[in-house]
Design brief:
single chain, 415 residues, alpha/beta, Rossmann fold, 13 helices, 23% strand
Amino acid sequence: MDSSAGLLPAGGVLVADTLRTAGGDQVACPAAPLLTGELRRRGVTAVTGPLFLGTKGLVAHHKLIDRDGRTEAGLGVATLSSDLAARESAQAALAAWTAVATARTILLASPRSFCAGVDRAIAIVEQALLTHTPPVYVRKQIVHNRHVVEDLTHRGAIFVEELDEVPDGSVVVFSAHGVSPAVRAQAAERNLDVLDGTCPLVTKVHSEARRFAARGDTVVVIGHAGHEEVEGTLGEAPDATVLVESAADVRQLRVADPQRVSYLTQTTLAVDETADVVDALRQRFPALREPPTGDICYATTNRQNSLKAIVSLADLVLVVGSANSSNSVRLVELSRRQGTPAHLIDRAGDIQPGWLHGVTTLGLTAGASAPPGLVDDVVAALSGLGTVTVHEREVTRETIHFGLPWGVRHAADGS
Ligand code: SF4
């Protein structure tokens, strides 16, 4: 019986994740997410599943043969034979991917993916879902990654933009990026049961903002306008803080007393670019006072350093992360500044075949909010285009761990 046909969407395409022969052989097709992504970009409904080579409507398939003559991987698609447009798209997508099917080396930057602050914030939501009576609300994305948010939504978390959307007395988790005192006050007024996912390294910046403002300084916050973390930091001392995004902004600054200026930064900035802004501040305000330790966090710094270790060796860099993830976007920018093309991808299916022409060495990393499994998925998908040799370059070992807030531990212990 031809069970592949049952998976075919009307007018759509089935992309094989396994090719099965009449003789019972099975050939894995790890590149299925790549082919599926290309079809979706072409506006075709695509699903993945096993494909029998005798399927009626089979468009084409492509096998990769290893050096010993064994079939090691395959790409396969089937379409409903009645849908000409879908057939043509499937053929074109398959041709696009087979054109870049070759053996590759992947240079894996390390550290990459989740940091201690992201781990902690996600764990707080997970514990809340286990120990609190639903619903559990989360203000803003708990971390800037769509997979994390989709997964927690699937498990019952309700994500909202503002506290107005949360009923009085409910459980609400604040995101890793932190909130301003005004949001905390609103939560208290509404009698909300707050679980605070703010990263301790963001909390450190907030306390510096209060301290610097209390001693009478104008506090220059270096960061990106509109970013949640920056809004929270500015909210700590709104009358004393001023935002700059670049060295050019520094030239426009007007302060009450040039002898009393200090600065802070967003935790997820580019280290090199921020140094330029700080230099501009020092030139304008020689008495500039600095935070006791840098505000760009260890995770951001390590991910940039680990990318720097591989970027010049790679023909292309892929950064796994979401578009609203500041530290992920910084990694793409870093690569491009160093002269290596780079793309930000949320998942393997976002990779476009045109990016891989002539690419035999690929650099791969992920922002601090991107789950490590997504990087594994990219490596697996690329292995469907030919033998992949992975070299991991670890520039430092991260051992930092942030404990859960007392209230969360207490609820988990049931004590
Ligand atoms: Fe904390 Fe840095 Fe991770 Fe942000 S990127 S959650 S500041 S450790």
